[in-house]
Amino acid sequence: MNTPSFASLQVGDSLPALQLPPITRTTLALFAGASGDHNRIHIDIDYARKAGAVDVFAHGMLSMAYLGRLLTQWVDQRQLRSFGVRFTGITHLGHQITCHGKVVEKFEENGEQRVKLEIETRNQYGDTKIVGDAVVAL
């Protein structure tokens, strides 16, 4: 990991994008097991159809975890000061998620140099699925 320096970053700079493989039923089953979130809407097609969905769909927290990976591939997790998201769309089977981030503010707080980031996930069609922000100490 090549941690960026506060001085080298400018507002508008982008983090290296993180592109994930397409969402599969296996992805959902593995995430359910790892997270303990066995909500049937994500793993049981019959249940999903009864609920009015065409098929199962990804856990929102799976995409949030992907955004966490975007951040921790950029800086060590000990440098994260805040991380929050808002879910804006459903991630369906077959969607290939790419995580993006950009610097929107540089500031100092509690004796630390920090940057505020806007982060998001988009599928292969350019549809935004999650938006959020994070603060990182550099």
Question: Would you give an account of this structure?
Answer:
22% of the residues are buried. With 138 residues, the protein is of the alpha+beta class. It contains 3 helices and 5 strands. Helix content is 22%, strand content 31%. The protein has a 5-stranded antiparallel sheet, with helices on one face. It starts with 17 loop residues before the first strand and ends with a strand. The chain has helices spanning 25-35, 45-50, 60-72, and strands spanning 18-19, 80-87, 98-109, 112-122, 128-137. The mean pLDDT is 96.
> What would the principal axes of the Cα set say about the shape?
elongated
Number of strands: 5
Helical segment count: 3
Alpha carbon gap, first and last residue: 13 Å
Helix content: 10-25%
Average pLDDT, to the nearest integer? Answer: 96
Low-confidence stretches are: none
Q: Hey, roughly how much beta strand do the residues contain?
A: 25-35%
Spell out the key features of this protein.
138 residues, alpha+beta, five-stranded antiparallel β-sheet, 3 helices, MaoC family dehydratase, HotDog_dom_sf
What is the compact description of this entry?
The protein has 138 residues and is of the alpha+beta class.
Question: How does the SSE layout of this entry go?
Answer:
Elements: E1 18-19, H1 25-35, H2 45-50, H3 60-72, E2 80-87, E3 98-109, E4 112-122, E5 128-137
Antiparallel strand pairs: 1-3, 2-5, 3-4, 4-5
Organism: Acidovorax bellezanensis
Domain MaoC-like: 22-116
Protein name: MaoC family dehydratase
